[in-house]
Amino acid sequence: MSGLTLHSVPIRALKEFDDVLAAVAGARADGLLVLGDEFIFVKRKLIADLTIQKRLVAVTQNREITDLGVLMSYGVDFADIYRRAASYVDRILKGANPGDLPFEQPTKFELVINLKTAKALGLTIPQSLLLRADEVIQ
To answer: How far apart are CA 41 and CA 100, in angstroms?
Structure first.
């Protein structure tokens, strides 16, 4: 694609986050891919505010950021993980050896689309994608 430049900016400490956000805010970017970790979650409001202010098309793994105004998220359904973790706690409290319990990977993922943000950005989300979404924020 002509004119497409990709940048990857890892953040290793929370104190680096504000500098990285300032760099993103000053860049000529049309989009932002936000991959989740504890730093991202702590600064989710700042990320959402930046994407709205800079009119960035942003996609993340974290639905909470989408609730705050990012265009869309696709990632693990944490409510499902927490429910499944509770069953492990129950088994351990009933005497199961934690080492004997099977390792589980996430099996449920959710797609959340913020239609309000899409409209503000002048984007039309295809109906086929809206129908696949687990939640559409109006």
So the answer is: 32
72 SS3 class: strand
Alpha carbons 92 and 101: distance in angstroms, whole number: 9
Instruction: Calculate ∠ Cα 72-78-83, nearest 5°.
Output: 150
CATH number of the domain enclosing 56:
3.40.50.2300
1 pLDDT more than 50: no
Q: Are 40 and 64 in contact (CB under 8 A)?
A: no
CB atoms within 10 A of CB 15: 9
Residue count of the chain, please give it.
138
Q: What is the pTM of this model?
A: 0.78
- Assigned domain for 117 exists: yes
β-sheet bridge partners, residue 109: 76
Structural domain including 58 reads 14-76+109-137
Q: How many domains does the chain have?
A: 1
Q: pLDDT by residue (tens digit) across 10-19?
A: 677 767 777 7
The per-residue pLDDT of the chain, averaged, comes to 85
